[in-house]
Request: fold
Amino acid sequence: MSASERARDRAKLGAAAHPPPGPSVGQAVSHESAEEHVTGRARYVDDLWPSMHGVVHAWPVMSPFAHARVISIDATEALAQPGVLAVLSGADVPGENDVGAVRRDEPLFPSVVSFHGHAVTWVVAETEDEARRGAAVVAVEYEELPAILSVEQAASPPGAS
Reply:
């Protein structure tokens, strides 16, 4: 590589490391995919998966309680269903059981549910229908806890009510 080519490459790297300044406060900024969304050209997972080989489907098992402790999960019957490949739970997470980019956000597999419909485990199957059928037969035992219905209750220490 010649000296002039190296200088050109260094200049490109420098420009990439120092992009032009962004918009000023009060200046309108479009979302990166706004045009695709409003024109209908945006592609979503449901648009993409049919063209991919080997895709599996997951369906959540959701809590019927607004606030409860998960005592046990029995996936035996679900795993016996046709097409069901796995039932995922907190025991399958080797690291931190957290869905957020910020640590201590929300657990992927909660030991305490904090809203009605909170997913506690996920059934993975060859088709969406098989995953739904498997999720319907997962047995979850809960200890129902008092619902938190006010800001004051939510802000108070656990057990202070």
